[in-house]
Design a protein that fits this description.
Largest sheet: 5 strands, mixed
Number of helices: 9
Order of helices and strands: EEEHEEEHEHEEEEEHHHHEHEH
Strand order of the largest sheet: 3-2-1-4-7
Number of strands: 14
Oligomer: single chain
Helix content: 25-40%
């Protein structure tokens, strides 16, 4: 059937990989840095340039995972917010299919990651699941009977805006929130990995602020379990490399604070596909829609 160019579009960078139809990576390509406020460095022009470079590969299709709210039928960005200026309204599918005569499908990045985990990772074999990605914000995706639930306006799963103790979920449970709280208390800028290193070495501030993140993240998870009762809930994002530190502590809070054992049917898992989840899921989405 040929190989597929899979693309993962973030706010400031685009990742690429060539995959076969079984979801196996054939080759990786260098990432591109983007700045959507500058025309020559924006996402659309960066994509055009890369696809021109790679058309010699005789591609069977272009599979895209993108930040922002995506209309997956039209393959269009319908909302991107302040994090990616000038991106709302970008018609990625139409652009690629018209200019390069290549079939293209586009899905939201968290939804794509969820589909990747369903096809090849931690949600494999399930009928329902929720994926959360913890990073700059907190993103969410809902899987029901093997299908992404998009909602009436394609915004289902935007749980970063959910209210937790009077604050937005992503403002109290994201990696960026952890970094900001530690910086305010310690007067120095540490990345997530350094915060966990210092916590494991006994630093009280880092320990306390990680506990704040765990508490808030756990309360969000409990609310999701009450609402959706998924078979599995999968946690992703770079911070989940700290699985041995985070998972047992989150599970302990879930066990302590969930109302009754009847609500404890949801299994907590850590994402398996790591940085490739979006591209693998973009391919799965392409295969399903084509």
């Amino acid at each position: 059937m040929g190989n597929y160019l899979c693309i993962d579009i973030g706010g400031t960078a685009i990742k690429y990989g060539l995959y076969n139809e079984d979801g196996q990576k054939v080759v990786s390509f260098a990432s591109d840095q983007t700045n959507n406020a500058i025309e020559q460095q924006n996402i659309s022009n960066t994509l055009r340039k890369k696809i021109r470079e790679l058309k010699y590969l005789d591609l069977a299709g272009v599979c895209i995972s993108s930040a922002g709210v995506v209309d997956p039928v039209a393959g269009k960005i319908i909302y991107s917010g302040y994090t990616i200026p000038n991106y709302t309204g970008t018609t990625i599918k139409e652009m690629i299919e018209t200019e390069f005569q290549l079939p293209c499908e586009v899905e939201n990045d968290v939804n794509a990651a969820c589909l990747g985990e369903y096809w090849q990772g931690a949600l494999r074999g399930t009928t329902s699941g929720v994926c959360l990605t913890v990073g700059t914000g907190v993103g969410g995706s809902i899987l029901i009977d093997g299908q992404i639930f998009h909602g009436a306006g394609y915004t289902a799963g935007e749980i970063g805006y959910m209210d937790i103790n009077g604050a937005r979920f992503q403002d109290v449970a994201s990696t960026s929130a952890l970094i900001q709280r530690v910086r305010l208390r310690k007067g120095e800028s540490l990345d997530g990995k350094e915060i966990f290193q210092q916590a494991k070495a006994g630093d009280s501030v880092c320990i306390e602020e990680i506990e704040v993140l765990i508490e808030n993240l756990s309360m969000g998870i409990i609310n999701i379990i009450y609402l959706l009762n998924p078979e599995r809930l999968v946690l992703g994002g770079a911070i989940m490399a700290q699985e041995t530190y985070l998972k047992p502590r989150i599970q302990k809070i879930l066990d302590q604070k969930i109302q009754d054992n009847q609500f404890k049917q949801t299994e907590l898992h850590i994402a398996q596909l790591k940085n490739d989840a979006g591209m693998v899921g973009a391919l799965y989405n392409f295969i399903k829609r084509q």
